[in-house]
């Protein structure tokens, strides 16, 4: 597999990676909104920002589930690659640092690519974005996850709906399952049928399980009515 590693010169995490000597590809644009057509899969290293400012290492897919965009196109999800995603996440969770390690729900761009894209991020302020020890540990864990991809075992290939943006449930699920797109509760009421369908179709691996987390009956029925045609097992939590 031809995996391309990308960072931005505009991103302090990218600057730190360059300082460490990794020969990854540098772009001079924001990583949430750029066009790129090389490789079979793209891994993007970037900073993570949050209002709470919690130190964290996160992994997620790009995509804009609604009309609201932060780079990329509205109502468009990137292509998920569940087996590689969890292989990386499992290695990130092993990093021996006292810092939160979590999967984020799908959000922001880019969405233009025709190959899978995974974001691997460091949060949540400049002290962490420029910390060479943390950045190196994250990059090495990512590389190890790639090396182990073909040995990953998955009970199910899962997509999720509901729950918070920082999904401890799906982070835990990733210990035994491969994870595709997860759409947080914040987007559910504005989801189009097409985006709900994209959670299944925008994946390199066939999804065989849908997990619906903490949604009300109206929200659950909306999702089930769209995905019923796929005849996939649905679990309510």
Automatic annotation (TrEMBL):
One of its GO terms (biological process) is D-amino acid catabolic process. It catalyses: a D-aminoacyl-tRNA + H2O = a tRNA + a D-alpha-amino acid + H(+); glycyl-tRNA(Ala) + H2O = tRNA(Ala) + glycine + H(+). Binds 2 Zn(2+) ions per subunit. GO terms for molecular function: D-aminoacyl-tRNA deacylase activity; zinc ion binding. Belongs to the DtdA deacylase family. This is D-aminoacyl-tRNA deacylase. Keywords: Hydrolase, Metal-binding, Zinc. D-aminoacyl-tRNA deacylase with broad substrate specificity. By recycling D-aminoacyl-tRNA to D-amino acids and free tRNA molecules, this enzyme counteracts the toxicity associated with the formation of D-aminoacyl-tRNA entities in vivo. Its EC number is 3.1.1.96. InterPro entries: Deacylase_DtdA_archaea, DtdA. Pfam families: tRNA_deacylase. Its cofactor is Zn(2+). It comes from the Archaea. Monomer.
């Amino acid at each position: 597999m031809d995996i391309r590693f990308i960072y931005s010169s505009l991103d302090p995490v990218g600057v730190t990676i360059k300082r460490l000597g990794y020969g990854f590809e540098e772009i001079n644009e924001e990583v949430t909104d750029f066009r790129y057509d090389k490789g079979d899969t793209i891994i993007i290293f970037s900073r993570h920002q949050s209002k709470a400012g919690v130190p964290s290492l996160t992994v997620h897919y790009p995509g804009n589930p609604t009309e609201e965009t932060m780079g990329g196109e509205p109502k468009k999800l990137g292509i998920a690659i569940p087996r590689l995603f969890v292989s990386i996440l499992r290695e990130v969770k092993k990093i021996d640092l006292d810092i939160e390690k979590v999967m984020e729900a799908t959000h922001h761009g880019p969405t233009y690519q025709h190959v899978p894209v995974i974001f691997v991020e460091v949060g949540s302020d400049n002290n962490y974005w420029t910390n060479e020890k943390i950045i190196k540990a994250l990059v090495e864990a990512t590389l190890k996850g790639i090396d182990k991809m073909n040995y990953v075992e998955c009970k199910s290939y899962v997509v999720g709906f509901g729950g918070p943006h920082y999904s401890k449930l799906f982070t835990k699920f990733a210990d035994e399952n491969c994870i595709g797109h997860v759409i947080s509760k914040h987007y559910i009421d504005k989801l189009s049928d097409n985006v709900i369908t994209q959670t299944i179709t925008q994946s390199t691996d066939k999804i065989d399980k849908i997990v619906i987390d903490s949604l009300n009956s109206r929200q659950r029925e909306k999702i089930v009515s769209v995905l019923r045609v796929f005849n996939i097992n649905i679990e309510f939590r």
